[in-house]
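Troubleshooting: if your tokenizer reports a length mismatch, compare against these two reference records.
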Amino acid sequence: MSQVFSTRLARLQNLVHSQGDELLIVQGFENISYLTGFSGHAATLLVMPQKAMMITDYRYYQRALSETQDIEVVQRDRDNESLGACIVRLSGANLRIGFEAAHFSVAQWQGIASELNAVSLTPRTDMVESLRRVKDEYEIDCIRRAAAIADSALAQTLTQIKTGITERELAIELDYQMQLHGSTGTSFDTILLFAERSALPHGNPGDKQLLEGDFILIDFGAVVNGYRSDMTRSYVWGQPSAEQQAIFDTVQNAQRAALDAVRPGISAHELNAKAHEVLQASPFGQYAGEGLGHGLGLFLHEIPFLKPGEQYRLQAGNVITIEPGIYIPHLGGVRLEEDIVVTAEGYDCLTRAPQQFILGG
């Protein structure tokens, strides 16, 4: 893996140089992990065209030494040296500095910037994220393993469903099953909703009890080596009404239309439109969710985003979600979500749980 991290870091160093910066301050935890292999949560990475250094403190210093190679690790005494002063000590003054604008609070950056004495301080966005957009084999394998854990956990959890169980009880069971099967925590707070509450795209599980004929929406993910899966399944408990079945069929057809169009070179806008056309041609078009999906990796939501107007063209190695949905207030919602990796021939689906609609009954 050391060569993988060296290659990633070299790509960023070339990008820093091309931007005209002499130093890029990387603060995002996931970005530092991607570039170095460090798994801690308290570090700052200084990336210069010819070298890189990591600043951490006594809590993570030995861990950083053991997890990283070919990079200088510096232990900062937090009580006696500010982060800004440490950056100046290690890199020098009067530099053209870029910084990850999305990963600093205003207060944090104001404190650091006041000490840097730089020629220029330029906010940079998506520099590391743009490199992360195309996944290597290690990353794809981690997401595949996370998706397999989620598949197994869901299968076990579905056996526990019964009339009267609450959203919260079932969500706790699913989270437990994911960790029992090897997930390090959860990809995000599990969304598990019944009946009319399933129309909330990102609602929190509550005390609502499951009744015959209710929609069930489950959106969840597992984590392997920091890489996340993200899958949604929708069900009905018992026999569906004709309207419920029509909603599910519409969403499933929209997802299939998008999946059939996945290939390198198609734009995110075009792919979104494939699902949008199916949804808008149905009686439920006004209740369709916005956007089709997103990139997936160390972040739950990464570039590229599959939405109207997004001109990014898919490349082999992109890992994305395909997740059309219909959300009707006071009735309920249906979303189906798969994680896929774009290949030279089309795509490979990483999530494998069946898309059955009817449970029980």
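Reference record two:
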Amino acid sequence: MLPSSLKLSRVATATVARTARLGLTSIKLSSSSPYRLIHDGIIKSLNANPVALQMIDYALSLAKSQKSDESQGQAMLVLEQCLSSQSSENQDVVTHNSKGMVLLAMSSLLSARGSYDDAMEKLQNIQDLIHSHLDVRVAAMEALVGLNLEMGNDDTSSVLADKCLELLGKVELKNSDEGSEVASARAKAIKGLAELVQGNLESAEPFFQGFLDNKGCIGNAALSYGEFLHATRNFSLAKDFYQKVIQEVANKKDFTDVRALAACNMASEEVLLAATCALGQLEVHMGNFGNAEETLTSALNRAEQLFGSRHPKVGVVLTCLALMFQHKSKQEHSSSLLIQEGLYRRAIELLKAPPLDLEVNRTMRSGMDIIALARGGYAETLCIQENRKGEGEKMKRWAEAAWRNRSLSLSEALKISDSSNRMPVVDARICRAL
């Protein structure tokens, strides 16, 4: 019987040869890959099959560089072959880590094309790999919570976040050396984010205690903490954390080991996009409209580069940009109705908003926060135009019926008020208004 590593090498060779015939081998491994935390530095730091990691690197780079259905299909085929080549008989650390890494990569590919149920199935399978590295399982749980939040499954997200904390606690109790400070911060932060989404500021606060001086507060954990600070109006400190996240991810500082492993909407490029978008919103809330426009435009360019120009997450950033122009117009008593309308119309199109004539019901959950925000903002621009007031009122009624946030009304989310105890923040990772 051939050693598994040799068989895997032959699979990789055959796959590369086949894709070469399709003209797909001119792949440059990009440092800007949305999945780079699945493979950057992991070969040296994770006890896994190196050939499997090379195949993961190849597959994800292929999907990223081509941005087509065909390249994504080819990438998924590579990963499926990689997974099937792992021995089902071996129950050791190397095998479980390798399988876990492949499943993380598969879930990222699936989520990028909107196949959330399939992506979550891959992430759930990782929890059965009991010998896999703690950070592999934490990354899977974090991504699972993130996808459920994006889909509007808030109760499920909260339960999963609790399970992530339980997982960490059991491992630390069994072997304190395995429980890394980063994994602990990430587990607490994802629970804090789940509470933030549901409007529970007081419930979220304990999960962020000690984060200011916590060395493990990087990446997703630091971004979620920044959003908590932002929502509670600690603007100065929130800005520091947003900038910290942007610098760390952009420069890959502190993101070169397995502890920073992430997938799906929690992967590094999504974190960088969300931090940039949040910083732009913060500049709006601080009245720095020049900085806000520059930062949100940077986020828009990043979203288009990452997902393509027609992806819903581009619509999320466009919504934030439209709101910025709307706030600026009110503050400076200027007019930018044409700009606002153009941005809102484009955002609503990309967000795939249901027709206005379709009655809102509670089964509509995914993306409804941002759709309601975009339509609510658009309605305001229409209502101040006498000849379009009827159209605006109809859109306003639809947006208010679609709004899901438990702690803020839609009208509160659309205005900047010094009297409010809570400031609305759009999280571009999960496409939700916090």
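Descriptive notes for reference record two:
- DSSP finds 20 helices and two strands in the chain.
- The longest helix spans residues 154-174.
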